[in-house]
Amino acid sequence: MIFAVLQRLGQMLFVMIGISALVFLIFFATPGSDPAARLAGRNASPETVEAIRKDFGFDRPLPVQYVIMMNRLFVTQDLTSFVNRGMRVVPAVAQAAPVTLSLVAGAAVLWVIGGIFVGVVAALSRDTLLDRGLMVLALIGVSMPVYWLGEVMNLMTQSRFHDTVFFSWVPSLGYKPLLTDPWGWFKTLIIPWFTLAALYIGIYGRVLRANLVEAYQEDFIRTARAKGLSPTRVMVRHALRTSLIPFVTMFGLDFGVLVGGSALLTEVVFGLNGVGRLTYQALLNLDLPMVLGTVMYASFFVVVANALVDVVYVLIDPRVRES
Amino acid sequence: MTPSIPSNVASRTTGLSAPDTSIHGTGETCLSPRVPLMSARSLVKTFTVGRTFRPGSGRTLHAVDGISLDVFPAETLGLVGESGSGKSTLGRCLTRLYDIDGGTLSFEGSDITKADTRALKPVRRKVQMIFQDPSASLNPRRRVRDVLAEVLKVHRIREGAGIEERLGELMDLVGLRQEYLDRYPHEFSGGQRQRIGIARALAVEPTLIVADEPVSALDVSVQAQIVNLFSELREKLDLTYVFIAHDLAVVRQVSTRVAVMYLGSIVETGETDALYARPSHPYTQALLSAIPQPHNRSRRGRILLTGEIPSPLDPPAGCKFSTRCPHAQAVCREVRPPLTAISNERSVACHFPLA
Amino acid sequence: MTAAEKPILLDVNGLTVSFATDRGMVKAVRDVSFSVREGEILSIVGESGSGKSVTLLSLLGLHDRKTTRVDGMVAFRGRGILDLNPSELRRIRGREIGLISQDPMTALNPVYTIGWQIAEQIRAHEAISARAAKKRAVELLGEVGLSNPQEAVDRYPHQLSGGMRQRAVIAMALSCNPALLVADEPTTALDVTVQAQVLDLLLRLRKDFGSAIILITHDMGVVSEVADRVAVMYAGRIVERGETEAMFKSPLHPYSWGLMGSIPPLTGPRLARLKSIPGMPPTPDRIGEGCGFAPRCAFARPACLERPPLRMIGTQAALCILEEPERSALRRTVLSPEEFA
């Protein structure tokens, strides 16, 4: 057991190192471009470029450059982006991370509950009008672009209907920290949560419905019904329980990717300074250290989410326990 | 047998008789003048299960555990056994669908143990395999005509108008109407699909057909049709079969000689009627007595084996059947008995064979 | 009291099951009638598509209510099952009628232990603690012949062999001591030596618990070993029924003759050819009111296009136009008397 955990941790570390090396190579070892000039930004004096070249060891072999870069990113944590007037990478990411995490975690709660609700109700009322209606709604949720839905929500809650009783509580755009202002945190995020969740409720509801309908064809569901169990118990303890296995896989991947910065559009629309936005701006400015930092951060979450999915797998599926 | 008659003809005229050393530990003494069509010596096929990235992990499963057997021209060798006996794996080794991990395999005198794809091509033409579920091997988007014609073209068996003629012959052989050539696999019932599977195997004019559970997925009334078809084709085309099945009654109906398998080894082999009437290995006896028979309703002498077949990953030491054998003694749990000839036509792997 | 005098447990009369398909309603089961007495083993034999499994599912009300229509009468201990509301039906399922499925691998939920699944059924019908239910599960597993029930109770289905799983399924079906067990091909997925053990177990359960059993199978050998009475189904109808002994001695319906002739014998002289039935079973949408077997029957005549009459001979009954002595004469042309003793 301990060996398996260590093996898993080793694998994660291996993947992270691999990603960091790959990203480093793409950004700093591309032939024909001078990484020092890139780091210095536009209109930098030759002295500055020369100083950077020396500082980052760009005149030394690639492995040395890589080690210096990783050392500055993770150990001394003083990697700075020149373009943004000396913004340090690690603190910038650390500041943006809670925003993204808050946004995605809240939305995840909503989409898991909503997805299960839609999937279960649709599967139970299979081939009825209710089922069809829910599936059409889910499809609409999947098809609506998140930035468009976000802008519509903003239009309604921030300007058009802001003065009505329904939306007068909605604060202006921006993020409020959870620890200092929990109520404000909740109020600013509730609209973004629903906006981001709409897409995923649609996807998860449709996938879960398909899984449940398939599960109901299984022999063990017939056994469960033949045992004299109530329809609720057959659904919850047997059909839903076994359908959760693919559901968890999907959730792990989506959650990891979103926390890693894919909630960019939602962040931009709602003026949340999260990691997605940070990455976006870094890319616009060709701020390579920042991009390196955010990519490492994103890959960390994807890798961790994958590892967590594996752990949850072991908990919910006894068949994988042995192997 | 008169020595003047060529060996293969002799075997056909004597019908069901099997050679004295048909299956033998090493087969070094071949007293019979008959030359085997296919011959396996100490054949081994292993699989590794549960392998992870950790080196040295995973366990070795001996699916075929040192089997020696001969297949003689014009005979039908029945391979019977329960799940995990390795009978299907052995069938796939004989047709070289699997690579062989140990021992030797020869066909018509030439060694094909390690033959590569090119060297195997002429062998593939002469040795064909028929599977339990023919629909799995029939492309659903291709008509029967295309499936069969392709085989003829690949092996250059007929050309031009000859192809059309041969297609007609094949359909006649397997008892299907010629207009079915233009249908797709899903338009057929299970029995008809198996007939198409047989037609495809026959298309290349093989000498040996290895049939792996060809009737076990079929309903009883249809199963009988296909069993009869196998018998007819053997007579018409001088075919040799290795007929793999778990249904002992079906095997008795089609086979001239039977080999009983248990956990990757042959425990007994002999001429069909004699083996069914007087089994020598306790496993064969128990297997036969376990079959419910509508034709003989008195259930005298039923031997109810306790326990189940051990995992092939962890076979018992000594005789593999010793854990379930009603006659097992101390020596059985320690020494594995070799397959030994006890009479001209019977070999058995048992320390205490039944009289 | 002999079996024939025991009270009738299940009485099925004129059961007809129709499915809604693209081509309209298709009858999968037509006017099926049979009864099971307490402690009796009735075997329903038939090939795939004969309607035997559909019959069984409708006995438990397990058919899909949206696409299936069930007509006729199914009385369990005098109560009409088809008219029960869902909660009344649930009190019968599992408690009064236990189901044993064909494939024990898929019949058990892979994510729960054997003990959990047995206890779940007990607790669905009785107000007892989880601990007491689990103790009962251990007892039941011992009852069906698992060598180490204490350990097996905490095993997941995939950790057991096929035979052990089928025993666990049987233990679960038995858990509320039902008066009737319905078994859908319970040994088809098993090896012969294990099948022999499971058949032995079923016979012992009948003796020890007095459960009646409806055994669905395609294997005439299994029928002859365990059944008291047999019903042969073909194309949605019961074409012949009667006591096992009598039916194997003198089958009435040409389809039964064909079935018996199709099975290669294990002893005695080998046949040059099996007496197979030509053609194949019809799909339900191709069956009219006439005899469903007529297209494959060597003795069919124009009158077979009409609905075949039910002829009774002693304890046997068959849906066939043939009459004695012609029937016996024709049978001799298909089955030689020495084949059946």
UniProtKB/TrEMBL annotation, chain A:
Query: GO CC annotations?
Result: plasma membrane
Name all ABC transmembrane type-1 domain ranges. Answer: 97-313
**Subcellular locations according to the entry:** Cell membrane
Q: Which InterPro entries match?
A: BPD_transp_1_N, MetI-like, MetI-like_sf
**PROSITE patterns registered for this protein in UniProt:** ABC_TM1
Q: Indicate whether rRNA-binding appears among the record's keywords.
A: no
Q: What keywords tag this UniProt record?
A: Cell membrane, Membrane, Transmembrane, Transmembrane helix, Transport
Membrane-spanning intervals of the chain: 12-30, 96-121, 133-150, 183-203, 244-270, 290-316
Q: Describe its membrane topology.
A: Multi-pass membrane protein
Biological process terms from the Gene Ontology for this record are: transmembrane transport
Q: Which Gene3D superfamilies match?
A: MetI-like (1.10.3720.10)
Family membership? Belongs to the binding-protein-dependent transport system permease family.
Protein name, per record: ABC transporter permease
Q: Which organism is it from?
A: Ferranicluibacter rubi
From TrEMBL, chain B:
Q: Where is this region: Disordered?
A: 1-29
> CDD domains given for it?
ABC_NikE_OppD_transporters
Transmembrane helix in keyword set: no
**Subcellular location field:** Cell inner membrane
One GO cellular component assignment for this chain's record is: plasma membrane
PROSITE patterns given in the database record: ABC_TRANSPORTER_1, ABC_TRANSPORTER_2
Q: Cross-referenced Pfam families, in alphabetical order?
A: ABC_tran (PF00005), oligo_HPY (PF08352)
**GO MF annotation terms:** ATP binding; ATP hydrolysis activity
- Membrane topology classification: Peripheral membrane protein
* Biological processes per GO annotation: peptide transport; transmembrane transport
Which parts of the sequence belong to the ABC transporter domain? 44-288
Keywords assigned? ATP-binding, Nucleotide-binding, Transport
Residue spans with biased composition (Polar residues)? 1-24
Q: Which family does it belong to?
A: Belongs to the ABC transporter superfamily.
Q: Which named protein is this?
A: ATP-binding cassette domain-containing protein
Automatic annotation (TrEMBL), chain C:
> Boundaries of each ABC transporter domain copy?
12-260
UniProt GO MF annotations? ATP binding; ATP hydrolysis activity
Which InterPro entries does its entry note? AAA+_ATPase, ABC_Ni/Peptide_Import, ABC_transporter-like_ATP-bd, ABC_transporter-like_CS, Oligopep_ABC_C, P-loop_NTPase
Q: How does the UniProt record describe the way this protein sits in the membrane?
A: Peripheral membrane protein
Q: Does the keyword Lipoprotein apply?
A: no
Any one GO BP annotation for this protein: transmembrane transport
Cellular component per GO? Answer: plasma membrane
Q: Which Pfam families match?
A: ABC_tran, oligo_HPY
Q: Could you tell me which CDD domains the record lists for this protein?
A: ABC_NikE_OppD_transporters
**Which compartment or compartments is the protein found in?**
Cell inner membrane
- Record's keyword terms, sorted: ATP-binding, Cell membrane, Membrane, Nucleotide-binding, Transport
Q: Has keyword Transmembrane helix?
A: no
Q: Which PANTHER family match?
A: DIPEPTIDE TRANSPORT ATP-BINDING PROTEIN DPPD (PTHR43297:SF2), OLIGOPEPTIDE TRANSPORT ATP-BINDING PROTEIN APPD (PTHR43297)
The text of the family note is: Belongs to the ABC transporter superfamily.
UniProt name for this protein: ABC transporter ATP-binding protein
